[in-house]
Amino acid sequence: MEVVVYPDPRLLKKTVAVAAVTDEVRAKVAEMLRLMYADHGVGLAAPQVDWNARLFVMNPTSDPARPEEESILVNPKLLKRSGRVKGEEGCLSFPGIYVEVERAKNVVIQWTGLDGAQREESWTDWKARIFQHELDHLENVLLVHRMSEADRIQHAAALDELRRKFQEA
């Protein structure tokens, strides 16, 4: 398993609900966490590792020594959002590119945990931003889709370099 980098079309594959949390799902989740921490990320969605599942992992601290901060969200849903706030975002599938993105400040979310239990919580600020960013991946919305025209111009060379590397691979 490896992180898929833009403009790889696998980032835009339709995701499907996870039918059951199995040992195979748990093994893939463990590998996703390893990859996320190796790249110093705070979240990683299944499409970013060429898995078309509606699932993502996150740890807002980016610290593997703090597993209590990890969230594994299977079949996540955004139930409610409120407030608006802008903040800088990066993405493991867009290495070295950071842009300001407007998101909801507060979210009410629902998901299934690795234990099979349904959960519903309210998250705010950083956790809400990570949730929305990773949920975008499950909906085939990438960082490049959230860029303003000014961002596209500012990051044109970096995006062209990612395209060039993809074509050479």
Globally, the shape reads: globular
Number of helical segments with 4 or more residues: 5
Q: Assign a percent range to the helix content.
A: 25-40%
**Number of folding domains?**
1
CATH superfamily: Peptide deformylase
Provide mean pLDDT, rounded.
Answer: 97
Instruction: Return the CATH topology.
Output: Peptide Deformylase
Describe the structure in your own words.
This protein has helices spanning 23-38, 125-138, 143-146, 149-154, 156-168; strands at 43-45, 55-58, 71-89, 99-112, 118-124. It is α+β, with helices and mostly antiparallel strands and 169 residues long. It has a single domain, classed as Peptide Deformylase (Alpha-Beta Complex), CATH 3.90.45.10. A 5-stranded antiparallel β-sheet has the order 1-2-3-4-5, sandwiched between helices. The chain starts with 22 loop residues before the first helix and ends with a helix. The mean pLDDT is 97.
SSE layout and pairing:
Layout: H1 23-38, E1 43-45, E2 55-58, E3 71-89, E4 99-112, E5 118-124, H2 125-138, H3 143-146, H4 149-154, H5 156-168
Antiparallel strand pairs: 1-2, 2-3, 3-4, 4-5
